[in-house]
C-alpha cells in the first residue's frame, strides 16, 4: 500500500490507518505509485479497474465486489462543425456523475483497510456515489448534508441505504460536523476532498482520453472546478502518462467556475497562490459552488503548471449552454452546462486548432 504524504511537512503516514489529514493539519497526497503500463491495461476491460496496476493496491476480491463497471465512457463530438471539440460522457455511470470514478476506488480502499463504517459530507453527486458504493461494500454509511438539500437528493441517498444527517448551516459547517463525528467515532472519513485516493479514480479520465485519441493527449481539457476532484485527477493522470514516457507534454487545464462563486478564478486572476474564501451568491451549478476549496493551492498550481487558465461564467450563460446541450441530445446538470459555457468563453477568447476535451460530468435528471 502506498504511503500518504503531507503536503506541508512531507511526513509519511500509512494509508491503511484511515488518516485523512496530517497531525500537523496538512493535506495529504499519495506517494508516487507504479508506472503506467498500457500493455497491462490492454489485457483488461472495459471499466476503470483496468488501470488498477497504477494504484499500487487493489485487492481483487474487494474491488470486484464493489465495482458497478464505472469508467470507460464515450468521447464524442457534439457538433459536426467542431469535430475537434470532444465531450467525454462521464454522466453515463451508475450514479450518473463522474464522481463514481473516485467513489468506487475510495470505498474499495476503505473496505480493504478494514473500515467498519463510513462518514461522508456532500449535498450532491459525491454523497450519492459514496453511498451507492458503500452499499456494495456492505459498509454502513452516514452522509452529512446541509439542511437546505433538496428532497430529491435525500431520496437518492436513502435509496442506497445511507443514513442522512442534516446540518443547519453552510457546506463548510456540514463538513466540520462530519469531521467531528469521525473524530468521535473512529469511522472512516470517505471524503472526496481530503482523501487523495479519490483522485486515483478520477485520474483514469486522463488515461481513457489518451487511449481514445489514439494514444495522444488532447491540447486542452476544460474542467468545471469546485473542490477540484476531477481537475486534480486529470492533472495526476496526464502527469503519470508523461512520467511513463507516453506523452511529451500535458494538456492545458482550463478551469471553469460560476461567476457567482469564483474563489479560484479570482485567485488565478490576482496571481495568488491560494484562494481567499468567496461569497456564494447563488448559482445553479451546485456541483462547483464551493466558497472555500481546501485544495485551492494545489488546484492553482496544477492549472498554472500546464499554462492553463480559469474562466468564470454567468448564470445566464449556464442556462443558455444547458439548452444548447439539450438540443444536442444531452440533458445535463447545470454544472456540466457551466463547463460547456466556459469552453465557449475560452475558445472565443483563445481560438485553438487543437483537440479540446470537456467532461459532461452529471446527468440532468438529478438536478432541479
Ligand atoms: Zn504534516
Could you walk me through the main structural features you see in this protein, from its secondary elements to its overall organization?
This protein has 13 helices and 13 strands. It is an alpha/beta fold and 368 residues long. The chain has a six-stranded mixed beta sheet with strand order 4-5-13-10-11-12, with helices on both faces. Strand 1 (4-6) and strand 2 form a beta hairpin. Helix 3 runs parallel beside helix 4 (125-137), helix 4 packs parallel to helix 5 and helix 12 (315-327) crosses helix 13 (334-349). The relative contact order is 0.13. Bound molecules: zinc ion (ZN). Residues 6, 8-9, 11, 22, 24, 26 line the site of zinc ion.
Which descriptors apply to this entry?
globular, 4-stranded parallel β-sheet, alpha/beta, 13 strands, 14% strand, binds zinc ion, single chain, 368 residues
List the helices and strands and how they pair.
Layout: E1 4-6, E2 12-13, E3 28-30, H1 38-42, H2 60-66, E4 75-77, E5 85-88, H3 99-112, E6 118-121, H4 125-137, E7 141-146, H5 151-159, E8 163-167, H6 171-185, E9 188-189, H7 197-202, H8 204-212, E10 220-224, H9 229-243, E11 252-258, H10 263-270, H11 296-305, E12 309-313, H12 315-327, H13 334-349, E13 356-359
Parallel strand pairs: 5-13, 6-7, 6-9, 7-8, 10-11, 10-13, 11-12
Antiparallel strand pairs: 1-2, 1-3, 4-5
